[in-house]
Amino acid sequence: MALEERERIVIPDENGEEHLFEVLFTFDVDKTGHSYIAVAPAEQAEEEEVEVYAFRYEEKNENEDDLSLFPIESDDEWEMVEEMLNTLADEENDA
Question: Which ranges does the record mark as transmembrane (predicted)?
Fold first, then answer.
């Protein structure tokens, strides 16, 4: 069975250094109209435990490769993202 190639994105840090991340998943919330993305550092991709970062995002223009990322600031948003992460982790463990 071939491994699925995950999408990768580059995210600059506060110092302008670019870091490569693997996209774990994206999801939309109809109730709020917001989209979310969860990523992990590409260098940790093969490790058993990885650091996961989540952002709210908006696509710029029509180009899907151009995203604006926003920090998740409210507890409600964090709970929603954590619930989605847990659901996907459970599904992956069951597979």
Answer: none
